[in-house]
UniProtKB/TrEMBL annotation:
<feature type="domain" description="Dienelactone hydrolase">
    <location>
        <begin position="572"/>
        <end position="682"/>
    </location>
</feature>
<dbReference type="InterPro" id="IPR001330">
    <property type="entry name" value="Prenyltrans"/>
</dbReference>
<dbReference type="Pfam" id="PF01738">
    <property type="entry name" value="DLH"/>
</dbReference>
<dbReference type="InterPro" id="IPR002925">
    <property type="entry name" value="Dienelactn_hydro"/>
</dbReference>
<dbReference type="InterPro" id="IPR008930">
    <property type="entry name" value="Terpenoid_cyclase/PrenylTrfase"/>
</dbReference>
<keyword id="KW-0677">Repeat</keyword>
<feature type="domain" description="3-keto-alpha-glucoside-1,2-lyase/3-keto-2-hydroxy-glucal hydratase">
    <location>
        <begin position="300"/>
        <end position="476"/>
    </location>
</feature>
<dbReference type="InterPro" id="IPR050955">
    <property type="entry name" value="Plant_Biomass_Hydrol_Est"/>
</dbReference>
<dbReference type="Pfam" id="PF00432">
    <property type="entry name" value="Prenyltrans"/>
</dbReference>
<protein>
    <submittedName>
        <fullName>Putative peptidase</fullName>
    </submittedName>
</protein>
<feature type="domain" description="Prenyltransferase alpha-alpha toroid">
    <location>
        <begin position="6"/>
        <end position="116"/>
    </location>
</feature>
<keyword id="KW-0732">Signal</keyword>
<feature type="domain" description="Prenyltransferase alpha-alpha toroid">
    <location>
        <begin position="147"/>
        <end position="287"/>
    </location>
</feature>
<dbReference type="GO" id="GO:0016787">
    <property type="term" value="F:hydrolase activity"/>
</dbReference>
<dbReference type="InterPro" id="IPR029058">
    <property type="entry name" value="AB_hydrolase_fold"/>
</dbReference>
<feature type="signal peptide">
    <location>
        <begin position="1"/>
        <end position="21"/>
    </location>
</feature>
<dbReference type="InterPro" id="IPR010496">
    <property type="entry name" value="AL/BT2_dom"/>
</dbReference>
């Protein structure tokens, strides 16, 4: 009897919902598809080679955010969107000089919000336009969506609310028959955007869920399922923070995907920009509602799992398997812990992954790092714990056998006990930081110098009852650990110089093939404020250094990584020490002083602007990343090629400054590029230093 119960329990646990991991190439392919629609006038067309429209431009901008792409020419796009505004009426027209309408005015507001160019004049004029021109429900629905994007309300909200509520059924739903879910979703989203609290929430949710078909999607009425109806209903779910069958929705979207990265509005149809907008938006909602990041940042990281089999891992294959792009541990109930471990060991790194635990009460799992196999079934080392009473904790497995640091209360508030969660583990030197669903959970500094700082990564099934643990999107960024050994060989090295300010340590990396027989160009990298110090190592573990360490063959230059104590201002002691480090490399290595480029991120991005303006003759190219410059000094760089990089989800001042610096350089006749990565916050450096176009441009200037 006991055995039968166990078998039934195993069946119940194994039958957890699937959630196939998305290929890391898919968002990039979709981004390339969308970017191709931008025309020279800055707008986007509905079809390749067709005329630009504001509707297509707004959809493209938002779709690129969903997949982490970038607008090829941001300043031209800003200009195009502004040109569609009708100053007389306050509305927006589909094309410059055209006739404004309610729908286009709403999507115009969405575009100005995404481009960070919304201002009080534009907002007030649009509100006035809506007040005069909004008539029916569809007008209300799209108008309040536009106003939500610019965080504004309209005097007519009370009137519009009443107009919608008059359409409502007695049970709180809207519409009838097969189209009820779509009608309810659209009306509910509009009411929520106007701040209305639903008084019959459960009936609304029941209607929305009842409309989901066996193929995972919804329809407008009696017709086939499509992404437009699905988008409208999923919008309501997302705003209500509720979920339908998410894996079924994901499956429908997968069937709409095309090889070129586009999506059709229904399976079997042609891919287009509209279908791509619906699909990428709904997919982002599906991920967030399921507890995953809306977009997993993969650039600069290497997959730990190939998505197909256990290559690179070793463990008990009766318990561990590769299924639907996930690593899955399935326990029928075991008396000892079991681990699936990487064959490779890692020292300093950043590791991120999503996980979902389903099982009997007390089920537990975890991810080992800097760990070793020990006789029997155990691993010894640090563990990012998973399970009741241990979520978000740092545990020391089979070594000190205790919790080293408990999870922060704020991190536990972000936990999804039955859904997907996301860990990021940063192990750098003696410091370990764990974030849970984007919230800092643990910050721990190892006090014991004898504890190993290298080891394997392992996934755990804890002893106990039946359970299933799923892992996906396992990505690692291995970091260099410069030493003073063998200073003339390719790789990362730690050096010390004497300056007027005392001894300074810095790192240098030598490219593959370096043997001292031929000259190489040089890139000097300035780190951000978080890497200030005096160990000379951490400056090489962020930005350019991590990119070079991951793929050294793609960076055919010597790189110098000085370390600041305070600031990279051009006249600071830190900048003087940086130039001294550069001179030390030029003197002691086969390095070409006529081919030196300068780059930096955040504080180092600002330092790149400042130092290059002070000594433009020293550099053949400059790449400032997410750092603000002095617009008045831009003209000093008119003879130096510049590539400006920022994430458009960074601080607004930083984004606008990047555009102003770009425009000032263009006005001065400089050769300048600008890239804004859509939806990327302050860390735009991983994208930048792994961007093939930027690297081609940089190496081109270094090899002339």
């Amino acid at each position: 009897m006991k055995r039968i119960v166990l078998s039934l329990a195993v069946w119940a646990i194994v039958a957890v919902p699937s959630a196939q991991a998305q290929s890391t190439e898919q968002p990039a392919r979709t981004a390339s598809y969308i970017e191709a629609f931008q025309n020279p006038d800055g707008g986007f067309a509905a079809k390749l080679g067709g005329p630009s429209t504001l509707g297509s431009t707004s959809s493209a901008i938002r779709s690129l955010k969903n997949v982490g792409g970038s607008i090829p020419d941001v300043l031209a796009c800003v200009s195009y969107v502004k040109s569609c505004r009708d100053s007389e009426s306050g509305g927006f027209a589909p094309t410059p000089g055209g006739k404004p309408d309610v729908r286009t005015t709403a999507v115009g507001l969405m575009a100005v919000a995404e481009l960070l160019i919304a201002d009080e004049e534009t907002s007030a004029a649009a509100i006035g336009y809506f007040s005069k021109n909004v008539k029916d429900f569809e007008d209300i629905r799209i108008a309040v969506a536009g106003l939500e994007s610019i965080k504004k309300t309209a005097p007519e909200f009370a009137k519009w609310t009443k107009q919608i509520e008059e359409m409502r059924n007695q049970d709180g739903t809207f519409g009838q028959g097969a189209g009820q879910a779509r009608d309810t979703g659209g009306a509910v989203a509009a009411l929520l955007r106007m701040g209305v609290e639903l008084d019959k929430r459960e009936a609304v949710l029941a209607a929305l869920r009842a409309g989901q078909r066996s193929d995972g999607a919804w329809s407008k009425a009696e017709g086939p399922s499509d992404l437009e109806a699905t988008y409208r209903i999923m919008r309501a779910f997302f705003m209500l923070k509720e979920a339908p069958d998410l894996d079924a929705v994901r499956g429908f979207i997968d069937r709409c995907r095309k090889d070129d990265g586009s999506y059709s509005s229904a399976p079997g149809g042609p891919g287009d920009l509209g279908g791509t907008y619906y699909a990428t938006t709904v997919l982002r909602w599906v991920k967030i509602l399921g507890g995953e990041p809306g977009l997993v940042e993969t650039v600069g990281f290497v997959p730990l799992f190939n998505g197909k089999d256990l290559t690179g891992w070793e463990g008990d294959t009766s318990l561990w398997s590769a299924r639907e792009g996930m690593l899955v541990g399935t326990s029928p109930g075991i008396k000892h812990n079991d681990f699936l471990a990487t064959e490779k060991s890692y020292g300093d790194f950043i590791l991120k992954f999503s996980f979902r635990l389903n099982g009997a009460a007390g089920s537990n799992s975890g991810v080992q790092f800097r760990s070793v196999r020990i006789p029997g079934h155990e691993m010894s080392g640090y563990q990012a714990d998973i399970g009741e009473n241990y979520w978000g904790c740092l545990y020391d497995e089979s070594r000190r056998n205790k919790v080293l640091e408990k999870a922060s209360p704020k991190a536990l508030e972000a936990l999804h006990k039955t859904g997907w969660n996301h860990y990021v583990i940063r192990a750098i030197g003696r410091k370990i930081v764990i974030t849970l669903n984007g919230v800092n959970s643990v910050t721990y500094v190892e006090p014991d110098e004898t504890i190993a700082r290298t080891g394997r990564i392992g996934l755990q099934i804890h002893a106990g009852g039946p359970m299933v643990i799923q892992f996906k999107d396992l990505l690692i960024q291995a970091l260099p650990e410069p030493t003073a050994d063998r200073p003339a060989e390719p790789g990362f090295h730690l050096r010390t110089i004497k300056t007027d300010d005392g001894e300074r340590k810095y790192s240098v990396s030598l490219p593959p093939g370096y043997d001292g027989s031929k000259e190489f160009p040089v890139v000097m990298f300035l780190h951000g404020s978080g890497e200030r110090g005096d160990d000379g190592i951490i400056s090489a573990q962020v930005g350019l250094g991590s990119a070079v360490f991951g793929r050294p063959e793609d960076y055919p230059f010597i790189a110098v990584y000085p370390q600041a104590r305070k600031s990279w201002k051009a006249d600071s002691e830190d900048s003087k020490a940086a130039l001294a480090a550069l001179d030390d490399v030029l003197k002691n290595y086969k390095a070409d002083p006529k081919r030196v480029a300068l780059t930096g991120l955040s504080m180092g991005g600002s330092g790149s602007w400042d130092l290059a303006a002070a000594q433009p003759e020293r550099f053949v190219a400059v790449v400032p990343i997410c750092g603000q410059g002095e617009v008045g000094s831009a003209a000093k760089l008119k003879s130096v090629p510049v590539w400006v990089v920022v994430g458009d989800a960074d601080g607004q001042k930083t984004v606008i400054n990047a555009r102003e610096m770009t425009q000032a350089l263009r006005d001065a006749g400089a050769k300048v590029h600008e890239t804004e990565y859509r939806g990327v916050p302050h860390n735009s450096w991983d994208r930048a230093y792994n961007d093939p176009a930027l690297l081609k441009w940089l190496t081109g200037h270094l090899t002339r």
